[in-house]
Amino acid sequence: MNILGTAKRNTVAVDTQGGRNLSRHKILQEQIEFLEEHDPNNEKIRELKEALKKSKKGRKSRRKGSNYERKVKALLKEWIDIDLERTPLSGGFAKRKNLKSVKGDLNTLDEDMNFLLHIECKDQLKWAIKSWWKQAVDDCPKEKIPLIFLHQNQENRDGKRVQEAEDFVFIRAEDFFRLVDRNKIIKYKEEKKNE
Fold it and tell me: Closest Cα to residue 119, out of 131, 130, 108?
């Protein structure tokens, strides 16, 4: 194995001598260690350390996204009593395998059910609604309704909570009107009912 080779995202290399599977993170660590031992003045060390730092940040971000998908899954289970499953690789699995029925972050595995929502889950500090919406619409199969669950973290100032953490849903207005039961959002006052 060439330890100085470039490590790409999600690469798993096989060490032909030791028969080990190495993640990108491990490859970067070994490249840094090798260079520090054999060529400590090599300029590549700084680049590799930066790549390693980004690798750790990416892993934390993926974990946070996975946790939020599990939270949305639980919310939907409570609301509609349907078991949804997280899509492998957070929807990326369907893109790679060209599977139209399992796009989005959450899907049902029940073949007898036609779940009409295409769900994307976003838990990020800065919201990028336009690009997220484009992703949801582009990935959404024609028979489904694109929808984004968004999480807003709590906000603290001077050690005091000034805003609670909240979850939101972003949906096209026409789809919202199609999904919402009019009788559940209109309540007449008692006087009007008696007339």
Answer: 108
User: Could you give the residue ranges of the DSSP H alpha helices within the chain?
Assistant: 24-38, 44-80, 92-97, 129-139, 173-179, 182-185, 190-194
Q: Which residues of 23-46 are buried (b: 16+ CB within 10 A; e: fewer)?
A: ebbbbbbbbbeebeeeeeeeeebe
More confident residue, 26 or 7: 26
pLDDT average, residue stretch 81-109 = 69
Angle at 29 between CA 25 and CA 30, to 5 degrees: 120
| Range in 43-47, 76-80, 115-119 with the lowest mean pLDDT | 43-47
Residue 171 is given by DSSP the state: E
Which tens digit of pLDDT belongs to each residue from 147-193?
Answer: 999 998 877 788 887 778 899 999 999 999 999 888 888 888 876 55
133 residue type, one letter? W
> How far is the first Cα of the chain from the last one, in angstroms, to the nearest whole number?
84
Q: Which residues contact 37 (CB under 8 A, 6 or more apart)?
A: none
Query: What contacts 31, CB < 8 A, 6 or more positions away?
Result: 3, 4, 7, 44, 48
